[in-house]
Amino acid sequence: MSKKIIVPFGPQHPVLPEPIHLDLVLEDERVIEAIPSIGYVHRGLEKLVEKRDYKDYVFISERICGICSFIHGATYCQAVEQVMGVEIPRRAEFLRAIWSEYSRMHSHLLWLGCFADSMGYENLFMDCWKVREKILDVLERTTGGRVIQGVNRVGGVSRDMDKEELNRIKSEIPGLRADYVELTRIFDEDLTVQSRTKGIGMLPKDTAWELGAVGPTIRGSGHAVDARMTGYGAYDELDFKPVVRTEGDCHARCMVRTGELFTSLDLIENAIDRIPEGDIIVPVKGNPSGEYYAQTEQPRGEVIHYVKANGKKNLLRHRVRTPTLANVPALVQMLAGCELADVPVIVLTIDPCIGCMER
Amino acid sequence: MALNVLKNLIKGPATIRYPYQPAKVTPVTRGHLVINIENCIFCGLCRMHCPADAIEVNKQERTWQLNQFQCIICGNCVSYCPKDCLSIKQTYLPPSASATYVTITGPEPETKENP
């Protein structure tokens, strides 16, 4: 039996976009245990809720994460609206769904690029990000921000899309779909990708459920778990089917994400067909009192925003349970028994967003 | 593959040579915040509602100060301004290595003439 050594991985590491630290206990080249530690980018955003007006805090909740920003803002608004008993216009819910799906596509394309980069496949990385740029252009054109959209308000959204814009978005969808078909083909069939991902980082179906994994991590292990199935916002009217793979390895999680790109396009087309006319925002008066627990689906999995208010303009408590935190136990499980060279690929397959996780 | 090589030879780069070429902007892009100080009444609503604490307003000295490094260009102040003197311009500010404060002093208020 060889000697055990501990190799520190992160918080500064070329493949990690964000700081998480893992102590990898190695026996030769094999990882036998991974011990995670977090706390490098804590910013105290939840505490700020005590100092800001609950309506102004939307902008801060949107900045919890730089990638899934829109959905954080929308979930926070949803929670406050529920506390106050505000019913927002149906059109606003549809607009939120359209922008949520765009932000999901941009997040997944970013992730696919980073994933290709972690395998050393630079060309594919650039291809993914080139397609992502088209998504960001749409977001900038319709909301004014590429990554931080800033259109969510308590009571609706601040910006509308006219018929011309909706038609333009719809006309761009076939082009995007063609790009996705090409990317999916590479991720599915390319030998380089297959040799680095197939059968690696196994997460069996039962373990995924027991460890409480969320998002594409658990959907890659055969469970159809998706908060959009609960039908929040406009999703009750859209035809949504979750993408599920049963293999439970890195390749399955990657293919869930490529599959979700198509699902998002379908949802956007669906939403544009069914979007009702009407107002986009209702005036909200008074202060919230009570508590609520809003649950939505982010690109990385299910996010939970808990708010508690006592009738003042500042909320008492705002708590966020982000998907990455739920996926870390699953990550530790996947890393046990893998080769050291596969660690970057496996870490990336949970799509870690540490900025989100530590807030 | 040969087709890809040919395509890439003809197509040119997918990027633009920023900052020599200007960045892409749209009519709704949030680039930076400006104020039309003539209309400002120094009420301080923009300071109160700024999520990033980037604005300082001094009614006595009639100054309006913006820390451009701290401003997150969310546009919240624009929606609260009672005189509509704040607005967002589309161009992005050039990069800078130190915090930039913009202090604007308003004109003296018109004194009422005695009848």
From TrEMBL, chain A:
Annotated Gene Ontology MF terms? ferredoxin hydrogenase activity; NAD binding; nickel cation binding; oxidoreductase activity, acting on NAD(P)H; quinone binding
Task: Supply the InterPro entries for this chain.
Answer: ComplexI_49kDa-like, NADH_Q_OxRdtase_suD, NADH_UbQ_OxRdtase_49kDa_CS, Ni-dep_hyd_lsu, Ni-dep_hyd_lsu_Ni_BS, NiFe-Hase_large
Name all NADH-quinone oxidoreductase subunit D domain ranges. Answer: 120-282, 287-359
What UniProt keywords apply to this chain's record, in alphabetical order?
Iron, Magnesium, Metal-binding, NAD, Nickel, Oxidoreductase, Translocase, Transport
Under the heading Gene3D superfamilies, the entry gives:
Cytochrome-c3 Hydrogenase, chain B
Positions of Fe cation binding: 68, 356
Q: Which coenzyme or cofactor does it need? A: Ni(2+); Fe cation
What SUPFAM superfamilies does the record tag this protein with?
Answer: HydB/Nqo4-like
Q: Which residues bind Mg(2+)?
A: 46, 320
Binding-site positions, Ni(2+): 65, 68, 353
Provide an example Pfam family for this protein.
Complex1_49kDa
Family recorded in the similarity comment: Belongs to the complex I 49 kDa subunit family.
What this protein is called in its record is NADH-quinone oxidoreductase subunit D
